[in-house]
Each structure stands twice: as C-alpha cells, then as structure tokens.
Design goal:
The protein is an all-alpha fold and 234 residues long. It has 9 helices and no strands. The longest helix has 41 residues, at 48-88.
C-alpha cells in the first residue's frame, strides 16, 4: 500500500509540474503579447529607449519582491497550489488565506503531499469563485455604481486587506506570542515612523522573517538547555 502511494505521488508531482510549466508559459506569452499586439494594431508603440528605462525601474522594485514571494509562498502552497496561485494572482488577500484555512480544516502540515493536494483544491476553488464574482461584478457594475462609490463605504474598501490579514494573523499569533513579538513590534514601529517603506514590504519580509527565524532558534536552544538541566541529577 505504501509503495503504491509513493508511486502515485511521484506520478502526481510529475504531471503537476508538466501542466504547471505549460500553463505558466502560455500565461506569460498571453500577458506579454497582448500589449504588444494592441500597440501595433493601434499604432501606439512607445520608443524602445523609454520603454527599457521604465522596465528597468519596475524590475528593480518587483524582481526582489517576486523572489521573496516565491521563496515564502511555495513551501506553504506546494507545487500545484503555487502554479495556480502565481498564474491567477491575488495571492496575499485571497489565495494564501484560502490555502491556510483549508490546511487548518483538513489538518495537514506544510511540506507534505496531503497539504499540496489540499492547497491546490482550495486555490482552484478560490480562482473559480473569483472569476464568477468578477463576471457578476462586470454585469452589475452600472447598477451598483452609486452604492460602490458612496463616500460612507470608502473607508471600508480602503481597509479590506488589513482587516482580513489582521483577523488571520491574530489566530496564528496566539499560537506563538513570544515568537512574533519582536518582528511585529519592530515592523509596526518602522511603518508608523517611516510610512514610505510600505512600498518595500517585499524586501522587509526578508528582515522580519530573519528576525523570527533567529528568535525561534534562540528559543529552541534555550528550551534544549532547560531540558538538559532538568535531566541532570541533582
């Protein structure tokens, strides 16, 4: 039985990477070719020197952020979930919360084959629901426009993401208050006194993650010394 399980999981992983790479390649080509096609058809192609200067500025900001997101999110989502999430987008305020919630409900652990499958199903469902909601939103955009643009609702729309992640973070922070205290306090003070750094959140995730890992290592060593001291004869 265990041998059949391993064979199936290997086949699953191979097919996942094959389909994921093909899908990513198609998505990349479509995203790249759409503006190029519109530029040539509408005769609005920009000067290439200006284009590459703009690209250099954008890449300098987003490439580090993309690398950080890949390194952080891929172990959480697994192969299938990562392919789906990076193709469909909206990771921070939709795909990641759905995957984490599904993992908690199913009781799986990050890095396992079971978590990979659960995350893939959760993100696929989230993507389908998102497309359905967007389609309904486009159809109902004009009738709902007065409500959506009401001044009374603007503060709520501006704080959807902080409210979502605040509620999620509270649940996880309670499991390890000592572990999250230093990064949480430091990042909060940093953003309060230097609000301009909010645009560099991808880079600062490395710093806060390093602080959390270092603090966890110190707590682990301290707990090990306490256990060793308790085992020694008096």
């Amino acid at each position: 039985m265990e041998k059949n399980r391993e064979v199936y999981l290997q086949h699953y992983q191979r097919k996942t990477h094959l389909i994921g790479r093909i899908s990513l390649s198609i998505a990349f080509l479509l995203l790249a070719l759409a503006p190029v096609a519109m530029g040539f058809i509408l005769d609005t192609v920009p000067e290439m020197s200006a284009f590459w200067r703009g690209m250099a500025q954008i890449c300098a900001i987003y490439i580090p952020s993309c690398i950080v997101e890949f390194l952080i999110y891929t172990p959480m989502l697994g192969a299938g979930g990562s392919y789906l999430a990076f193709i469909t987008g909206n990771l921070i305020n939709m795909k990641i919360p759905c995957a984490l919630n599904a993992r908690d409900i199913a009781g799986t652990k990050a890095g396992t084959a079971e978590n990979d499958i659960v995350s893939t199903l959760a993100i696929a469902t989230s993507s389908l629901v998102t497309m359905l909601v967007l389609a309904l939103g486009v159809l109902l955009l004009i009738p709902l426009r007065p409500i959506l643009e009401a001044p009374a609702l603007q503060p709520a729309f501006n704080n959807v993401v902080p409210a979502l992640f605040g509620a999620m973070a509270t649940r996880y922070f309670r499991k390890g208050l000592k572990l999250v205290a230093i990064p949480l306090v430091l990042m909060t003070l940093l953003f309060v006194f230097a609000p301009g750094l909010i645009s560099s959140v991808g880079t600062l995730m490395i710093l806060s993650g390093a602080l959390a890992i270092g603090h966890a290592f110190l707590l682990f060593k301290k707990a090990g010394k306490q256990e060793q001291a308790a085992e020694e004869p008096v």
